[in-house]
From TrEMBL:
Residues 1-21 are annotated as: Disordered. Belongs to the CitG/MdcB family. HAMAP family: MdcB. GO terms for biological process: prosthetic group biosynthetic process. It comes from Massilia aurea. This is Probable 2-(5''-triphosphoribosyl)-3'-dephosphocoenzyme-A synthase.
Amino acid sequence: MDDLNPLQTVRAPGRPEQGDASGRAFCQRIVRVAVRSLYAELVLYPKPGLVSKIDNGSHTDMTAATFVRSLFALRRYFADITRAGMLDAPFHVLKQLGIDAEARMLRATGGINTHRGAIFCLGMLCAAIGRCRAHGDALTPARIGELLRACWGQALGAHSVVNGEPVSHGARAVLRYAASGAREEGALGFPSVFDVGLPALHRALAAGRGMREARIDALFALMAHISDTNVYHRGGVEGALTVRRQARAFIARGGTAAPDWEARALASHRSFVAARLSPGGAADLLGAVCLVHAVTTR
Ligand SMILES: CC(C)(COP(=O)(O)OP(=O)(O)OC[C@H]1O[C@@H](n2cnc3c(N)ncnc32)[C@H](O[C@H]2O[C@H](COP(=O)(O)OP(=O)(O)OP(=O)(O)O)[C@@H](O)[C@H]2O)[C@@H]1O)[C@@H](O)C(=O)NCCC(=O)NCCS
Ligand SMILES: Nc1ncnc2[nH]cnc12
């Protein structure tokens, strides 16, 4: 028995799913989908202020290579948290997996926060997807969301409370600007993924546009909607208003249905870079949208 393995505490005898070959294959499939989803977010261009393979957006300390290193470091985490979900692990087990994954990310990137929001959001979604599979339920966005709230909603609500000294940029933005951020997203069961990003992606695909355009539309829908602590941290209230206004204007012109959408997205990218704005929370949530879309459409 490995005392340091948090999953050990939730392994119940007579639950063949956890260790059997099909359970392992399922976890590996989710790892591939999670990593590909985050990679799809990374290579998407133009994304206002964000890092891609074309440029580093508003960031001076990270490049696409930093994100790729981080992605490699997260593979085991996505397998572990999917398996923990299959085993109905309590939130404290998921939290420890998340903390360990953050440490691995920071080691891989030399201390740069590339994916903290993604570790949280995609991690919880992987756990819910694992739970869905253990129940034998069809993987649908509605069922994944339901199980996430039913299994860990209460603990996520408690996790949203920022206590004492703010240590992270997110916690500071919550206290200083009453921004909601990743914690509140989690407490509500990631509604921006299910009710904002995913519908925007589906609408663009249903209208016959490609996956690239659909992802751009989903990103702008998220930027228009969420309270992104990374934006508050870098740009304060003014910055948050700028991001929301530009995203709304892009959507009001038809998003990627407009013939000049690419030039408009590029103009936003340039203006965000000039103002050092980076909607990193929306980028993480786009990765989550790609994950839910991929697991629910095959
Ligand atoms: C709950 C935690 C995620 C902690 O959150 P908290 O808000 O306290 O801490 P942050 O360190 O600020 O991380 C939150 C990251 O979440 C992303 N985010 C922001 N707004 C939202 C939102 N509305 N919805 C979803 N996600 C959101 C955002 O990630 C992106 O920003 C990164 C860069 O941020 P930053 O570090 O501030 O760096 P820079 O811009 O480079 O600043 P400078 O250094 O240059 O000044 C970017 O890469 C994106 O990832 C926020 O960063 C969680 O950490 C936690 O509780 N962890 C413990 C483990 C756990 O409990 N897990 C639960 C089970 S999985
Ligand atoms: N592409 C990206 N650029 C900057 N921050 C991010 N956080 C998640 N993805 C990001």
